[in-house]
Design brief:
Distance between the termini of chain A: 46 Å
Structural class of chain B: alpha+beta
Number of domains of chain A: 3
Radius of gyration of chain A: 27 Å
Largest sheet of chain A: 7 strands, mixed
Radius of gyration of chain B: 17 Å
Helix content of chain A: 25-40%
Helix content of chain B: 25-40%
Strand content of chain B: 5-15%
Number of domains of chain B: 2
Order of helices and strands of chain B: EEHEEEHHHHH
Number of strands of chain A: 29
Distance between the termini of chain B: 59 Å
Number of strands of chain B: 5
Strand order of the largest sheet of chain B: 2-1-5-3-4
CATH superfamily of the largest domain in chain A: Aldehyde oxidase/xanthine dehydrogenase, molybdopterin binding domain
Shape of chain A: globular
CATH architecture of the largest domain in chain B: Roll
Oligomer: heterodimer
CATH superfamily of the largest domain in chain B: Beta-grasp domain
Structural class of chain A: alpha+beta
Strand content of chain A: 15-25%
């Protein structure tokens, strides 16, 4: 672990808690099987839902006959589109800052058409899930199959069938970014070009999506237990779309078995479950099985990117042109849209480099596949792979080492604050420091020597590196300005209990990354108390303040700062009371290890004594001193629109030229997320992220047939990385804290995923280069590698 | 539909008698009939390993067998193996190493790891990291990237470190 290369204003040294790799207090419960995930929750009179799903990717709906199903044992209600259109307003996945974007309005169940294979069409609500599924067998639905739009390029063809009959074509959104003149830059320069394809993959959270809605008509109160990252967002959505009072809608996210961005989108089943509970006035639960998860969870990526890079003979990179076409399913996801993925691709390409000219086109295309939207590292892996492949190709053309070409072309330390050609503003990055750190960490010269020696023996090893720049700590510039009810601020309520312990209710949420653990560390540090006496509450809209929750790498940076400032506020309150009791000046007192002390650390009274007095003997306080020991604090970032982080990955692979199999030998990460609050948890976020990135690079792909059928929608067919395939991952840190907050933390949850596939792509191509071959499609399956080698 | 059948099993040391529909899986029986929600369902086809419990002392996928097939047998779930202290060493190692994030896969991994370590100890074998990774070939984890899990099991198995790096 490296020492800090920079220090923020006040929290200078490594504290008693901040900066330490402490285990998560909440993990013991999960290790004992005492986790409480949404499907573990059972309520009195609870019914279970099952959905009949469309077998066609594109079809007109005909008559639906539910009469037989409705009479089957245990069945309470069979619901179709018309039942919901009366009680739920449609949702549309557009944002106003994406000019000209359109998307078809959505309802819980369709009225006229189905637009992807797996779309829920009919809902049965029954005593048990098994009885609901039995009844589905008896539902009769007439489908008139329509021609499906499947392939990305075919979807854009002039004669392509239109998914939305009211639209002129299948393009949902187009944008162009232009800075300088790429035409001139390319006219007088050498250049390299790529045509890269990135397959669809999906989150495969171990816990599938689950929603349990419980409407109590006596108080018009809706309680929804839901496996989600964003309970406040769903509180707002359920209230608005079902015409309920927001204050009477409670969303509880208990333990969440993985999310990675997938569980913050609106799914038709969620809305149907809420609607069914309103209609039946009883609790209704739906838990997706794995086949349903593959067919209805958002998929990710799906890009074809053509790009070229211009450079001078001395190795100076000058300009990039990009054309990104991304397929997002039949409509845009709600409420964040399916345009953010591509938008981030075209804004992040080339970001680490000093470019004079840049032009990027993005086309977001509809197709008859399940919706594509935000998943861990939104757009970053694509931008990273495209940029870093281009840079490697340029290095190869120029005869430069990959480290050398990057060293010569990074944005330099004297350029900050720096604005990229696409308009992103960097406060401060540590690109060159990370590059040289990686060089040492990998022992790069030794690896190259070993590679050369092994090539003599017919062993094809490849070494690849990939730099990334990552968006974290977003302000309302992300969604709020586009009209979405997605908060960029967080809230924290801190209470010193009568026993002198601390309860912390905060709006960031926990999905296993350790949000609660780091908040506990920060509050303990800020307040001067033992971490064990702090209880952190998350994931319940009724017991925690409203906020953005956990997504886009904002939990530590924004939620952490909120907790720090809340702890400062509570500390002032405690010392004000203590000053009155002790007849001292508050400024001359401190809190250390759970006691009020003099400035020199001499204990004066315990927090328990103080709290006892404030709660039970407030008569002893002077009349002008409030006994309140609960404070609330909200924090919204107001400096840079985003706190950009950076880092670099290294990948070492061995390609078997006869079988096409790739062995992942080792992976290295140097990353800079600003202040590291808990290195143990940060490293595990990075490792988990790397493995998801390597999954996309080598294994994971949602494969579709010509008629839009998902061909590998099961865990036995869709390849998730497993322990025996994954390498050990070496991680080190550079710390460049953001000056926008006292805490100085930026996000880290996506750093692993952002560059792992790019580094792997460069490593495989480095291995293939002496064989005269290259791959340009992810995942890099053995079949694709053998095709690149002309073996098949 | 076939009528519920009587089933008698010993679950976490206690004898339990229920009438169960023959189509109910052991996993659903444990979760719904007995409230043992520490056994998780991730795929229901025996691929992910989240539902693994011990049946007469051997790890099995609770999603792949019917509750009626377990009649007369002994079942130990994460709840029982925790309460008895049999998993304490592994749980402490997983906690210290943060070898879990969301925790959904963890019960199945702990049951498999316990069985693996018991075999290692019985044979006097000190497993390499590759052998540990291979032992986890029936368990998916989507959060950790596996390395911390391998570390935790390695520390309990008392294996000599096989890592190239000392980072």
């Amino acid at each position: 672990m490296s020492a800090a290369t920079d220090s923020p204003t006040r929290l200078r040294e490594k504290g008693r808690y901040i900066g330490h790799g402490l285990p998560r207090p909440g993990a013991k419960r999960l290790l004992a099987g005492r986790g409480r995930y949404t499907d573990d929750v059972s309520l009195p009179r609870m019914l279970h839902a099952a959905f009949l799903r469309s077998p066609y990717a594109h079809a007109r709906l005909g008559a639906i006959d539910v009469s037989e199903a409705a009479g089957m044992p245990g069945v309470h209600r069979v619901l179709t589109g018309a039942d919901f259109s009366a009680i739920c307003t449609p949702w549309v996945g557009t944002l106003s800052h994406f000019k000209g974007m359109r998307s078809a309005p959505q309802l819980p169940l369709p009225l006229e058409k189905v637009v992807w294979a797996g779309q829920p069409v009919v809902m049965v609500v029954a005593e048990t899930r098994a009885e609901a599924e039995d009844a589905l067998e008896a539902v009769q639905v007439e489908f008139e199959e329509l021609e499906a739009v499947v392939d990305l390029d075919a979807a854009r063809a002039a004669d392509a069938p239109r998914i939305d009959a009211d639209a002129p074509d299948n393009v949902l959104f187009r944008t162009r970014i232009e800075s300088g003149s790429t035409a001139e830059a390319f006219a007088e320069a050498q250049s390299v070009a790529v045509d890269l394809r990135f397959g669809r993959h999906t989150a495969v959270t171990m816990e599938p999506r689950t929603t349990l809605a419980d409407f109590d008509p006596s108080e018009e109160r809706l309680t929804v237990h839901q496996s989600t990252q964003t309970p406040y967002q769903f509180q707002d959505l359920y209230a608005r779309h079902f015409g309920l009072s927001e204050a009477r809608v409670r969303v509880i996210a208990p333990d969440v078995g993985g999310s990675f961005g997938m569980k913050l989108h609106v799914y038709h089943e969620d809305m149907a479950v809420v609607g069914a509970s309103l209609l039946l006035r009883r609790p209704v639960k739906f838990t997706a099985d794995r086949m349903e998860a593959f067919a209805s969870d958002i998929h990710a990526r799906d890009h074809r990117v053509r790009a070229r890079l211009a450079f001078a003979p001395d190795g100076t990179l000058t300009a990039i042109e990009v054309d990104d076409v991304t397929g997002v399913g039949p409509f845009s996801a709600y409420p964040r849209t399916s345009a953010v993925e591509g938008n981030q691709v075209v804004r992040l390409i080339g970001a680490p480099y000093r470019l004079t000219d840049y032009r990027a086109d993005l086309t977001v295309v509809a197709q008859n596949k399940v919706q594509m939207s935000q998943y861990r590292a939104v757009g970053h892996p694509i931008a990273c792979a495209v940029t870093e492949r281009l840079v490697d190709l340029a290095a190869d053309r120029l005869g430069l080492d990959p480290f050398e070409i990057r060293r010569r072309n990074y944005v330099t330390d004297d350029m900050y604050p720096h604005t990229t050609p696409s308009g992103y503003r960097f406060e401060k990055l540590s690109l060159a420091t990370c590059l040289s750190r990686l060089h040492d960490l990998m022992d790069y010269p030794r690896l190259r020597a070993e590679q050369a020696a092994l090539r003599e023996k017919g062993v094809h090893r490849g070494i690849g590196i990939a730099t990334y720049v990552e968006i974290t700590n977003p302000t309302p510039a992300f969604y709020g300005v586009g009209g979405a009810h997605i908060s960029a601020q967080d809230g924290c309520v801190l209470k010193l209990t009568p026993a002198g312990e601390v309860q912390c209710a905060i709006s960031i949420t926990e999905q296993g990354q350790g949000s609660e653990a780091i908040v506990g560390q920060i509050v303990a540090e800020g307040l001067g108390v033992d971490r064990d006496c702090i209880r952190v509450l998350t994931g319940d809209t009724e017991t925690t303040p409203s906020g953005g929750a956990t997504w886009a790498c904002r939990g530590a940076g924004i939620g952490g700062e909120t907790a720090l400032q809340a702890s400062r506020k509570l500390k002032r309150r405690i010392l004000e009371i203590a000053a009155a009791i002790l007849q001292a000046e508050a400024d001359a007192l401190d809190i250390r290890e759970g006691a009020v002390t003099n400035a020199d650390g001499t204990p004066r009274m315990t927090l328990k004594e103080l709290a006892n007095l404030a709660y039970y003997r407030s008569d002893l306080l002077p009349p002008d001193v409030s006994p309140a020991l609960t404070v609330a604090h909200h924090f919204a970032p107001r400096g840079y629109p985003f706190a950009f982080t950076n880092g670099i990955h290294g990948s070492l692979v061995e390609v078997d030229a006869e079988t096409g199999f790739v062995t992942l030998l080792k992976h290295w990460v140097v990353e800079d997320c600003g202040r590291v609050i808990n290195p143990l948890l940060v490293d595990e976020q990075i490792r988990g992220g790397v493995v998801q990135g390597l999954g996309a690079a080598f294994f994971e792909e949602c494969r579709y047939g010509e008629t839009g059928q998902l061909l590998n929608g099961s865990m036995t067919d869709y390849l998730v990385p497993m322990a025996c395939e994954m390498p050990d991952i070496v991680i080190t840190h550079v710390e460049t804290p953001t000056g926008d907050t006292e805490l100085g933390a930026k996000g880290v949850g996506e750093a692993g995923t952002a560059a792992a596939s790019g580094a792997a792509l460069n490593a495989v191509n480095d291995a293939l280069r002496p064989l005269g071959a290259s791959v340009s499609q992810l995942p890099m399956t053995p079949e694709r590698i053998l095709m690149a080698l002309d073996v098949i | 539909m076939i009528e519920p059948q009587p089933v008698t099993v010993t679950v976490n040391g206690a004898r339990v008698r229920r009438f169960v529909e023959p189509r109910v899986s052991l996993a659903d029986f444990l979760r719904r009939d007995l409230g043992l929600t520490g056994t998780h369902l991730g795929c229901e086809v025996g691929a992910c390993g989240a539902c693994i419990v011990n049946l007469d002392g051997q790890p099995v996928h609770a999603c792949l067998m019917l509750a009626v097939q377990a009649d007369g047998m002994r079942i130990d779930t994460i709840e029982g193996l925790s309460d008895s202290g049999e998993l304490a060493e592994l749980q402490a190692a997983f906690h210290a190493r943060n070898a879990l994030q969301c925790g959904f896969c963890t019960p199945g991994i702990l049951v498999v790891a316990r069985d693996f370590i018991r075999d290692c100890r019985a044979s006097g074998r000190r497993p390499t990291r590759a052998v540990i990774r291979d032992a986890l070939s029936g368990n998916y984890c989507r959060c950790t990237g596996y390395e911390a899990i391998v570390d935790a099991i390695e520390s309990v198995a008392g294996a000599a470190p096989m890592r190239e790096d000392a980072a």
